[in-house]
Amino acid sequence: MPVQRSLFLHSDLRRRPQEMLRRMSEMIDPDTPAHGPDGPVAVLERRMASLLDKQAAVFFPSGTMAQQVALRIHADRRGRRAFAAHPQSHLEVWEHRGYSVVHGLRCHPTGDRHRLMTLADLTAIGEPLAAVVWELPQRDIGGLLPEWDDLVAQTSAMRERGAAIHLDGARLWEAQTYYARPFPDITALFDTAYVSLYKALQGTGGAVLATDADFAAEARVWRRRLGGDVYDAWPLALVALHGLDTLLPRLPSHRDHAIAIAAAINADGAARTVPNPPQTPLFHIHLPIGPAAAERAAATVLAATGVELLGRVRTAPDPDRCSFEITVGENAMAFTPADVVELIHDLLRHSG
Ligand SMILES: Cc1ncc(COP(=O)(O)O)c(C=O)c1O
What we know:
The protein is an alpha/beta fold. It folds into 2 domains: 107 residues, Aspartate Aminotransferase, domain 1, CATH 3.90.1150.10; 215 residues, Aspartate Aminotransferase, domain 2 (3-Layer(aba) Sandwich), CATH 3.40.640.10. 44% of the residues lie in helices and 16% in strands. Strands 2-8-7-6-5-3-4 form a 7-stranded mixed β-sheet, sandwiched between helices.
């Protein structure tokens, strides 16, 4: 059976091109130019700069490119090649080490791979750093966030050591629901802040790097150099603008729903969540079965009910355990906490 409902993807747009075309035709002002200062990309860049309270914001086709460019510029400016990041940072795990292969940079993996970086981890680094990256929230460990005071202490300690302070804010929108502070309070801690257009904002792709005007100008040079200066990027910007209008205000309710789903799962006890309670709309569900069994069972549940429960199953040191990620967006809002508990029981029943 094809996917009817999904707990996994927060976006129905990426799954249904027809739905995206319908929304775009609804939202577009017939006088909107594709390009130029009033085109969607320029409007989005100005809006992001203002929302994040930075002098400028630069559209990129991907966060992968935006972050590597940010780190490259920080490194060149400081004449240092190393940056620090969590061992499970996106840069380290998911980008085929582009920072090294393309830009000649070195990552100094910092802290325990299953915990957040601490001030002690950071201050113990012996080599001069071009930059430090904070991924907020730290996706691969369940969407954990440092407490606000810890984040302030860590960023100011590393700034004092001469490192640039960079935010991997792919999920800044989700992180803000925990800190419950205005976006500028958070981005003020960082020299460069990358945000994603296609996670909570449910766009079709794309990223924005917000920073000061000089840095933005240099980032535009690198964007061109790397082939990221996509001429007709306006559809991506348009969908992201729609997400800012319609979804950003709903993020706190996504977080509340994540907490309610997690509470039901933990009360039931067949599975458990990390963290408990979730800090953001993203959290992990840990299962008492191995990864192959979980994948088989998820396929059986999908075939029988049309419900897609999970995307990628994460392995664990114990071969008889595994976990998967849930991000509560519009899709998951359609499942009650009791629905999710029942789905987990279905999954476990079919795992034998
Ligand atoms: C934490 C984090 N950083 C960076 C990225 C890279 O974004 P993109 O897919 O736009 O290259 C992702 C994408 O999933 C991410 O989760």
